[in-house]
Automatic annotation (TrEMBL):
Protein name listed in UniProt: DNA-3-methyladenine glycosylase I
Top-level lineage group: Bacteria
Pfam families linked: Adenine_glyco
Provenance organism: Loigolactobacillus binensis
Signal peptide feature range: none
Length: 181
């Protein structure tokens, strides 16, 4: 059996391959999955994706498996405990943003029926680029980031919003030779 061709970035480690093959670019309607992916993109700001991926299990442990209600209710003492965990990215602003974003997420979900409903209505039809040039942001990701900020989200800009869009299948940036394109 021959191995399927995947995006070149995904070949750096088994964890990256699994993320690419099983998650990245797959549209999802699941609020908890969307929340985790948004959190991961905020953690990644200024770091490599492999760093975030390698710390994913620890983030799950420290952030209640991304159960949105539980994260929204986290106390300053829980954030302080997370700051002492060397297995995660210990950036106080990013960790605090996780809690703030969970609280904002719940407000969006209450107003729109679910965050997924809000997000996919905002995005419309998933985009596909030419496969040769991959932008770091687009006018749509800038509008999404601005709207999320107006709704109380923190640590989200056009670049993180675009990476989130890629992650959850709102844009298809798989390389031209990738079997998942």
């Amino acid at each position: 059996m021959t191995e399927q061709q995947r995006c070149s970035w995904a070949n750096s480690s088994p964890a990256m391959q699994a993320y690419h093959d099983q998650e990245w670019g797959r549209p999802t309607q699941d609020d908890q999955e969307l929340f985790e992916r948004l959190c991961m993109e905020t953690y990644q700001a200024g770091l490599s994706w492999s760093t975030v991926l390698n710390k994913r299990a620890a983030f799950h442990r420290d952030f209640h498996d991304y159960q949105i209600q539980a994260v929204a209710a986290m106390t300053p003492a829980e954030i302080a405990a997370a700051m002492d965990d060397p297995a995660i990215i210990r950036n106080r602003r990013k960790l605090a943003a996780t809690v703030t974003n969970a609280q904002a997420w719940l407000k969006v979900a209450a107003a729109e029926g679910s965050f997924a409903h809000y997000f996919w209505a905002f995005i419309g039809v998933p985009q596909q680029h030419d496969g040769q040039t991959v932008p770091t942001q687009t006018p749509l990701s800038a509008r999404l980031a601005k709207d999320l900020k107006q709704r109380g989200f923190k640590f989200i800009g056009p670049v993180a919003a675009y990476a989130f869009m890629q992650s959850v299948g709102a844009v298809n940036d798989h390389e031209l030779n990738c079997a998942w394109r």
